[in-house]
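WARN retry 2 of 3 for item q-0093 after timeout on previous attempt; input resubmitted unchanged.
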Amino acid sequence: MEPYRSRKLTLRDLQEINPESLQSWTPRAVGDLPWHFLRKVLALDGAARNTSLGQGTPGDQAGREENEGQGEGGEILPHSNTDSRASLHPLDVLCAVLLCSDSFLQQEILSRMSMCQFALPLLLPALDSPRCTLLLWAMRDIVRRWRPHSRRGFREESLVLTPMPTVSFVRLGSCRFSKSQLLNEVLSPAQQHHDFFVHRDMESGNVPREIADGLVEIAWYFPAGRENSDLFPKPIAITNLRGDIESHWLQFRFLTEISSAVFIVTEGIGEREYALFSSLKGSDIKYYFILSHESSKQTETQEFLSKLAPVLKLSKQHVLEKEIGTNQEEFTEKLCSVIGSIMNDHPKEMSTESMTKAAWALGIRLDEDCEECQTASTCAKEITAEIKEVMHYKRETLTLQGALWKGLSNVEREMCRLKGQGDIPTEEYKSRLKEKWLQIRAQQYERDLPDGLTKFVNGIGMLSPRAIHYFLKCMTFNLDCIARGNLLRQQPGPPKLPKLNESSSGCSLGVEHFLRELGQFYEAEYSMMREGKIAKNQRKFIHFPRLAADLMLEGFPMELVDGDAANIPLQWVTDVLTELHGKLGGKSRMLVLSVLGGQGSGKSTLLNTIFGLQFAVSSGRCTRGAFMSLVKVAETFQQDLACDFLLVIDTEGLKAPEPANLEDSYEHDNELATLIIGLSNIVIVNMAMENTTEMQAVLQIVVHAFLRMEEAGHTPTCLFVHQSVKDAAAYDQNMRDRKYLAEQLNEMIKAAAKMEKLQTQITVSDLMGDTPEKQNWYLPGLWQEDLPMAPVSTGYSERVYGLKKHVLASIYSTPKDIPQLIEWVRSLWSALKHENFLFSFRNPSVTNAYTKVSAQSVACEWEVRKEMNLWVTEKQTFFQNQQPGKLNVCVLTSVTKETEQKLSCLSRGFLEQIQNAAANQTVRNVQAFVRNTVPPSFQSTSDSHSICSNLVNVGKECRKKNTIQALYLKTIEGELDILLEDCKTRKNQIDSKELDVEFEEMWSETLSKIRLNCLDEKQVYQDIELLLREDLETSPSPKPEQHSNLLDHGTKAFVMKKEYLDLPLLKSLNEWFTQERWRKTEELVHSLTEQCKDYVKHLADDKEDYKEIYSRGLLRMINERLQETDVQNLHTSACFKVDLKLHILGEVVPLLEKMQANFLQENNPEVYLEKLKPQYLTTFKNLYLGTDSCQTRARDFSHWCLKPALVEYMNNRLGYKIVDDIVYGGQFDEYTNGSLFQFTVLKKLLKYVNFDTYIIYINNYANFVKIWVEGHLQDIYRQKTRLQNLEKEILSEIMKKVMEALESADQRANTVSDLLGLFCEALQNNLVITSDRLAAVQFENTANTEEFAADVQAALPELEKDILAEFDEMTFKSKLSNLSLKPQDEIFKCVFGCGKQCPFCKVPCEAGGMDHGEHFATVHRPQGLAQCKNKRTGMLEFSLCTSDVVSKAVFTNSETEAKFHPYKDYRQVYPDWRIQPDSSIDTSDYWKFVFNNFNYKFARKYNAKPANLPQTWKNITKEQALESLEEAFNIKQPTSTEAL
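OK item q-0093 returned
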């Protein structure tokens, strides 16, 4: 202990969870004994004073030595094995521990010793001086409860403030019997012996004391109100001086000053003793002598006693003789009788606090004499001196948490439940509630910080950390004392008991009430700032959360739930925890452990015992609401527990008398239980076995809460602690109890499931695990009996320690950091304020897991598409390089099989990745989640054959075209040979111009001889018309002959007609419903037309030729859309369907014809030959002039053959690179997260507040997303460097392959033709270089292969530069048009999702992928923005579906067949949509701001009247709109002003 004489041990040191917390530790050396004592006494172990050493195994020794080496960096309890002594005296250990502990640990030690009924040190001797210390502060925390004979009812008082007579026992010289053992007999009730004082017959009690001599101990006796069995009718203090009074005269003098009587134990009195006692002449206290003398000294003793009689006023009754053989029981009764007579003789009564005068007079130090304690005590007294009557003080001073806070809580709850709505429109009613809420906040804000609270803030904000600790302790002592006094004055007889229950919470006053008031001042000011009533720089209380966070770090419990108002001050709790997170440097991973149980079942005591915490436990201070306290995990143990802290939550008792008087007592308890279980990783359900009815009621509440959370996707570990079990180790009985409990719980689960309207069959093992032996813990009652003098039960501490080890060993949950904890608190409390918790709760873990796995799914889905598309591109390249004869049925079969294998492999890999991602996020139903995330296209390989068939057909068409072109080139080359020979035989040299003329004549004559076979031109119009007639023949519709020209429909806008709606079916509906169907039909026409035009546009971008299959595909798209349920519900006529097809096909015919014309032009043989003409001319002239060099031919090959192939390769790959850059770059997460994409878009829209952009976003979301993505891509690649890097990467990859192929071909080829053939074969999967492209290079090419290859290699760097330069000169838009894969389309697929919209407000679904079970959106919007009008007034509707679903409102539309349907039951109509209520009234402020800003513009656009918006909507600012958006999406930006 030596290191801790200067740097004192603290309670926080001992609370720290470390590896030894899981070990049953036995002291092996004397250096271990202080730590053994500390562990045991803090755990309320009655054997804490046992200082005997155990015989450890070598392994134990090694483990202990390892702990020694850790020092202060690991286990804070260092051990020493250097002392060879057998043991230490228990009091030496106690003194050593107290001397090395700080004031607050001393206080905790004495408090626990008091609970164990150990005698406490009153005067602590110093090690290095004769002075001793009066331990007043160390006892201030002790409260004792007893029942005096003089009055009815129990009395509870602070031990140091309770005046009572003190009887002291001292020793002079040696003594043959144990004085301490005698005192134990005096204080112990009959048949209930207890060792209050350590005595010589206890283990190690006979070890010589080394530092404990001079110690004065004190013990008390408190009556139980039983006159026939109580030893004394009133409380009495007994002190015991260790050592000889002659050696410790100062302590003896102190005892004579404070005592009513002093008993001196001695073997005899001689001359020296007589002189010593004579100095006490004039003392007004009574002295008694207990003689245990030898017969040889009896005469001398009698003589000197006679002389002392007049000095000390002695009589025969003042001398008690205890000789050898004296009956112990009779002597004890005699001594008790003497003490009783002293108490009856109006003895001097003195409280421990009043002993300080005597101590100061004698020069005895006081443990409260330090400056910090005195300053803190003075500050606390200045506050508490003003408090006379608690209820009055709370009503007059702590005004914000009274009626105002409770009224605010009621308004907040009504905002969610809307029970008093009546006929008022939902949003109007909520707006009124918001105004009322703001009025209450304004009233709170207008209040000044009272003087007492100002002093409290100064106390926790301006004192030193140690003084703050003293200050809060002093506040607690003083407030508890005042509250007990108030409660005592109100203590009634039996008829007034209900009234006491109502007022007991009003009499309670603690530090938590002051902190609660600070929280309300903070929240009121924050609300005013958020509503724009005050500026940020006007805030005065912004530092309050920092002060509260500091207190949490120091171990003070922080209120989470205000039990009086049954509410959570969310902003206050959020900001306190945020401050705490910052102070911890972001290292705030924590596991949450909580306790639930009935009132008075020992929950707080259990937590205090397990973790050494300081939750309030005294009578009149029962926990209200919930409090949380931090327990640090040692750095050496953080990896094992996977957390930095334990957050321990103590809760108020379920089924408590006070909440039971409320109307919704079950609901109140269930809310608390659901909140606590929702936050926890481990829940201890504490059950007092004495009250079976109460236990069953508590279990019903807990089971209901567990069922709720299990359905919501969160199931913490549950441990049942059965308290007050008579035989906690009785296995058979406990096994029967467990079985009975399981049966009860299963019945309770059925009842709870019925209340929640759940059809699932759930058992207790599903909710709470299937290991009842490990989940049920049986503890004896804390006290052996319900008596003031009862010690802690034997075995209680041991069983609690076993529970602690099990708790720490069974932790396997995922920890939460503080931001996640805040999110859980907000989500749970928001849902609990609504009537339907399961419907309203948004599980943050499931939401985060879904977001992460969806993001992974988007990336994986893209990876699969990319792999498959690249594979198809390679196969297409391969086929284009093959001879026509090779593409037969066998090739198709082989490639089809290969395709199936490829798809299967990619799909399997996709599933594995998503399963792993889901498992890592601990998503409960992984298989269902994966099934809902896998794209339908990857779940089967049924289209493998069509993919391959298309590939082979494309290859055949390509080869057919190439074959024709090769024949033309062969003819031209023949004619060119003839011309070349002719020119060479002429006598005169022909110059360059003449050669041009000769070549031109030859070219023209040759082309005139060749009959150029152009590709067939199909009659698109006739083809589509024929297909349309076939389609219409199969359905009942007007005859096709009646239809006008398709092209006419394509030039006219589609105009709705009455005959398009099936009016006979709609005649029962009013005009409003007809208008609704009319509007929806117009939207259908527009969306389907755009979908079909997009389909054709993609074909055109791929430079496809027209095929009949494309027209059939268009008709299939139209027919499938018309068969969908929402279109069927429109009841459109057959005439409409015909005209719709005519209109759409009429629109696309010109597009298809243009597509075909472009294809024919691109593949026209004459155009193709014209492209080759310059190359042949150059070759002809070089051959004639003799300038045809290998270098020229190599350059021609690079330019005419390689360059087009490389450019095509880049165009085939660049789209993939761009998408990879977006998806994997880490800078654009919004493209893998639907909710984040919505946030990004909405934030950008708010920045510019452009009405036209909002209109596109609301009414044409798909088009908006396309424009957004294309625009964002333009912005991203506006700086060319980013795109240039991608282009260089692609080109360098293929150029490397080109170099390798060239080197390989050069080594095997004999001629240039062979070299080019081998080269093309090596790259047949990468580059399309057909034989016709090589014709001009091979023509009359007799170059050396090595030289040709070297020249080609030399030309490649320049070629690479040329290609990159050409790409550089192109605009980004033109580059996109050339890409085979359009990145904007792929990114669109990533973010657009399923495209479904909310049936009420048309907000787009944010769920990832196309195939999911439920649609959802984070923020919904007023229905008027989706063109919804009030059918009576014609005004735009401003109701929000997120409010309506918890209101009494009803809706009616085409889906309900004009019948009114409650919004609460909307899922009966729209089962695939999950519309949850807003988490707060501000959640939809974004759209309220937009609606208010453009109310009149929306009205004009939608041909309606402007909405009559609530006043609160008009007060919303742009900054508040952004803030609500950030909160809704749980994304905090740097600052709102910067963002805007």
